Amino acid sequence: MINKKKIKSAFFCQNCGCEYTKWHGQCNNCNKWNSIIEELVVKNESNSLVDSKSYAIKVDEIETNDELRLKISDNYLNELFGGGIVCGSLILFCGEPGIGKSTLMLQIALSTNKLKTLYVSGEESTNQIKMRANRLGFTSSDCYIMSETNTEKIFDQIKKISPALIIIDSIQTLNTKSIDSSPGSISQIKENAYLLNNLAKQCSMSVILIGHVNKEGNIAGPKILEHMVDVVLNFEGDKNNIYRIIRSKKNRFGSTQGVAIFEMMSNGLRNVKNPSEILISNKIEKLSGTSIAIAIEGIQPILLEVQALVSPAIYGTSQRSSTGFEIKRLNMLLAVLEKRFGFKLSLKDVFLNITGGIKIDDPSIDLSVVISLISSSLNISISDKFCFTGEIGLSGEIRPSPRINQRILEAEKLGYEKIFISKYNKPSCNHKIVVSKVGTIDQIYANLFKLN
Ligand code: TYD
Ligand code: MG
Q1: Whose CA is nearest to atom 18 of ligand 1?
Q2: Could you give the maximum distance between any two Cα atoms of the chain, in Å?
Q3: Which pLDDT value is given to residue 1?
Q4: Given the CA of residue 135, which atom of ligand 1 is nearest to it?
Q5: Ligand 1 neighbour 268 (Cβ under 6 A)
Q6: Partners of 143 in beta bridges
Q7: 361 CA to centre of ligand 2 in angstroms
Q8: 99 lines ligand 1 (CB under 6 A)
Q9: CA of 103 to the centre of ligand 1 (A)
Q10: Span 257-310, pLDDT tens digits
Q11: Domain coordinates of the chain in residue numbers?
Q12: Which of 92, 101, 102, 103 gets mutated to test ligand 1 (max ligand atoms within 8 A of its CB)?
């Protein structure tokens, strides 16, 4: 098979996948130390596993069919892909170990209507996959299962079965003969993704690659894969909590606005139909340090409970800890409170927690964070009928939140009596809920805490 061998070695950063011609102590791209490792790359010159017919064609002569999308039984996921999975697309689905990637992908493989699917696992045996499929409660006569890591053998089976959708669990376990480095190395990942991309495009088969993410949130070789694939989906959530969120980071065939929220049940992952309320704990007593933020994730309004604890730093050096909210942003908000409003927080321990274990990107939860911090520090509770939305600027001004009408209507729908928004927002909807417009933290402080 090998016509001409070209032996070469290259140096790859095992953290970010950056390639170098010689060894360096620190990666210039991700600044990580001692992450650059030499990989032997034995290249088989004729390594294309699919025959290619390349020629140029006039754009008018290309026949397209917009309907060429695979529909899976889960409509939320179809929407996330932009109306179904485009035939011939390469999708990267990444998340931390144990989050539920294999579970969700097996559900997809088993639920594609009347289309052949092939689920290849390099991590589990066919028996183990069957056990999981039984547990999920899906049955499909068109789903093929294969436990294999050798790329050439997988391609043989693909040619034989010719499935419409192929799921590779995971790209890090694949091993092609044309590269002489171990599975999981950057050059292996790169080559296998390249081969699968060619296959997807030439045979019009859709391929989903599962990618493990390391602790820092990088996939081994992420930049290489992200450029190459058509769609990048991130699967996030706290393993100890039941909620999971899928965000689309890149989509060549649809918007990246959408999110899908799932619950991990004993029989697999199920859609959350009304996600706006799930993250609110139904507490009986009113406690200080808690407030409700109304955020938008993609196009979906979500209400969150923001809890803060501010207490004297007994060991001298104060601690700051945050779960579900960026610590740098928390430090910025603390600095704004200290500098602009004279809250002496430098000698206090500050703990912040967003309930539910889902990390929300929307900066308009800032206002609720600040309110929770003040509430905890003064030990004055906030009514659980109030909710907040607004981003805080460096001078303490409350900035407008996008999609304000949608936020107000959602808060009203869920029975809140008052919503605090930025005075620069101009809501145009009809609503019964009281809308309180505030320009600075001072004003909201006077409104909420001084009158108590
Ligand atoms: P898995 O899909 O194997 O994770 P990944 O492929 O991302 O590493 O799922 C791991 C966790 O999901 C496992 O710890 C248990 C939980 N789980 C359920 O709660 N219910 C189920 O039906 C299944 C299959 C898994
Ligand atoms: Mg897995």
Answers
A1: 266
A2: 84
A3: 45
A4: 22
A5: yes
A6: 117
A7: 26
A8: yes
A9: 6
A10: 778 889 888 888 988 877 777 777 666 667 889 999 999 887 788 888 999 999
A11: 1-43, 68-271, 277-448
A12: 103
68-271 CATH choice from 3.40.50.300, 1.10.3720.10, 1.10.40.50, 1.20.120.420: 3.40.50.300
Tell me which residue has tokens 């309930």.
Answer: 355
User: Which amino acid is located at 309 in the chain?
Assistant: L
- 183 CB under 6 A from ligand 1? no
Ligand 2 centroid distance, CA of 124 (Å): 8
For the domain covering 277-448, report its CATH number.
Answer: 3.30.230.10
Instruction: Give 189-228 pLDDT, tens digit per residue.
Output: 888 999 999 999 888 899 999 998 876 655 555 567 888 8
pTM (2 d.p.): 0.79
Check if 390 has its Cβ closer than 6 Å to any atom of ligand 1: no
